[in-house]
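On clarity, I found the account of how folds are encoded harder to follow than it need be. What matters is that the chain and its backbone geometry are given together, residue for residue. The format is easy to grasp once an entry is in front of the reader. For illustration, here is how one protein appears when written out as sequence plus structure tokens.
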Amino acid sequence: MTAAPLLQVEDLHVEFATHGGTVRAVRGVDFSVDSNRTLAIVGESGCGKSVSVQSIMGLIPVPPGRIGPGSALLRGQEILGNNVVNGRDVRGSEIGMIFQDPMTSLNPTMTIGAQIAEPLQVHRGYGAGRAREEAIRLLESCRIPEARKRAGQYPFEFSGGMLQRAMIAMAISCKPALLIADEPTTALDVTIQSQILDLMRDLQRETGMAIILITHDLGVVARMADEVLVMYAGEVVEKGGVDDVFYRSAHPYTLGLKAAMPSNRDDSAQVLTPIDGSPPDLFAPPGGCGYFARCPYAMQACEDNHPESFDLHADHFARCWLHHEDCDVEATDVHRTTASE
């Protein structure tokens, strides 16, 4: 019997009521992640990446937000809409989160050490002295020099890379089973980005925690992920192992993201190919494929019929009519299964 995933999300829907109508931000998203594994969620801004995980964490303001049908099981227990399990809030204790911008996510009126110590006092019942010593140890484990001195400083005294390390120290302070990293390398230079990613990977090896990595940087995905979830217009359009998604891309949107990604090839004539057009209006999502208006392989069926999910092989699937057995459109760049596979 196969063990259940650490986190299993099924049929997640999230909406926002606005003066202009209801925005259907997340529409039937499914995913799972196991301990000691990294799931990357990728897609353009506004595709529903951050909203999906924020709803699981109970960070969607209600109203205007509303979480519709769906389920999020952490170790088999429902947490969607109920973040207290066995009398304990899972936020901070079972699930840690690294937010996009540490400068605005940290409290400017509290020292770094006090902010890291706080979840230990709240979730683990540590006294002030013990929590402070543990905060210093966590800063050291996140490779912040002179950790004892730095623990007494305020966020404005830290550089961007050090703030991100402090955020990681806070997120892992209670040894969570799952770490959610929302654009953890945004606005950092490439050297610091590399150090932050190495740190996250080392911490995963040491603790066995699962990681959900939210990003639009495919270079980060290739380096960190075991599995990749590609989102577009609030839906999952492709999911598979990192090699499947990169080398056997099965959805035209995934191909578009790859074509727009800079390469490290020594080719001065290299041209980045943008994805023409704009995402659909989620006030009134299209009845067919959301990518229809931008897709170079679009067919009439795509406009009028919502695509099914087609299993390609193993755990790789794509939501695209190009994989229907009756499709005769020549799509040379899209990986399709064959009898030999």
About this structure: The mean pLDDT is 86. The chain is about 30% helix and 25% strand. The chain has two domains: 7-225, 235-323. The domain at 7-225 is CATH 3.40.50.300 (Rossmann fold).
